[in-house]
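Journal club prep — side note

Before the paper discussion, L.F. wants everyone to see what a predicted structure for a comparable chain looks like in token form. Sequence:
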Amino acid sequence: GSVAGSGAVVSTDPEDDGAVHFSSSEAGDQGDGDRNLEVVLHHGPGRADGGIVAGGTHEEIAEALDFSSSEAVEHEQGGDGDRNLAVLHGKVLSGSNPNGAEGYHSVIAGGTINTIGDDESSMIGAGYKNTVFAPQAFLGAGWGSIIRQAGENSFIGGGKQHNMYGDKCAIAGGISNYVSSSADKSFVGSGSKSLVQADYAGIVAGENNFAHLRETAMGSLAHGHLNFVGAGAQNELMGQHEGIVAGMKNRVLCSHDFIGAGYDNFITNYVDDNVEVQGGFIAAGQSNFAVGENTVVLGAYNEAWGNNTVVIGYNGYAEKFAVNSATLTFQETDEAECSNTTDYSVNVCATNGLFVEGRHVTDEITQNKEALALLMSTNSFMEMTGKGYCEDLSGKYYDAARSNTGTSWDAEDCAKEAAYWNLPGFELGQDSTNGDTFCVLLFEKDDPNFASITQTTHFSKLRNVGPSAGSGQVSGSDRGYGSGTYSQPDLFTCYKNIHLNSLLSVENKALRETLAAMEKRLVKLEAAR
């Protein structure tokens, strides 16, 4: 061995089990400081070995385990600082204002008032008032950080006031980060006041982020497992297999869920804690709420309660029972909520309408409605001929079907029915007993639709004239038919179809088919809307 400084002496004492003494012939000239030390390395039975003090002033050196020694070894010499303490048996200390290491094979490289407990093979690099109580642990630098006894094989790189309880965990830096004893193989990168209670969890950066356990009515059900928070502040994970990449005040309470970024987003299950909901996804935005299973939300102030639902935009709502549905809302902020309450449906709400391939679908729906209403109105399609019952050019009455009792009709409603069936006209009647208004549809001779009229839910046959039934356009009205109510022609008004001609005859059903197609198209457009 060698000793820096002047007057160094290296000697062995055969009577002391082969102890090797490094000492100076002149006090104060040994080592790389003032009043340097004498180091005694004992190599005998029951002796401590491998003790090293790097140098400095006013060192105290003592044997850690060999309390049977006949001579206590104390020297007021050596050290790289002021009043350091090295307890031998594979320990290295350097620094000032006493550092202490009680465990085997441990190192305190520098700093002040740093402590390693009686567990072995740990290290503190530097800093102030850092403490390691766990074996095989490392605390690099900083001040006021602690690796607790449960934190075996754990790591604190730097920063201050960290608390490490987890096994095989790491805190790279920051301030006041905390890894619980319930955590295993978890990580905090940097930031401040973040908490990890979950296994295999990571918080990379940010402030007041949490990856922890959640007690439910079913117990702690492995909540807090394989979770990740990238950055941000006040984000919280309480399930398993979850992630929050960034943002603020985002919360996930279930499993297999994800929030990309944003503010005040929340993924949870139904109110019942016994129901585990999984697969929620909020890409970004503000104040979104995902409750249903396998839901997707993007935008702001949206709620997705139904399973397998998508809500995109602003202020959208998919109710709990609207499963397998989508709500797309693109409205002004002060408009009403866009809600979807129907299974297997898509509801679109847009302030300026819906466009498909450049065509304004919303306007087309409105225009088609107006055109159809105009086409079917009494003014454009039907014309009143007078009081009484309708008859053709030959004075014959038509086969007729009356609307069922208990329903109320006006001329426009009855005209739409007549236009749909491509009929020559209709009669609007009033019941003499209760005053209810009813509709009488007029069918031409041999019209096949008259034979099937009983299959409808709104009409039943009123009169079946048979082979002598009228045909063609209505020519006018007659006041002398039937008995009872039907013998009072003043209670009836006759309307004729002014567009009825050979092109719109019974044989040519083009109008009826056109009208039916228009209605179907409207239904589809409404659904797409």
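L.F.'s comment for the group: The radius of gyration is 46 Å. Keep this in mind when we get to the figures.
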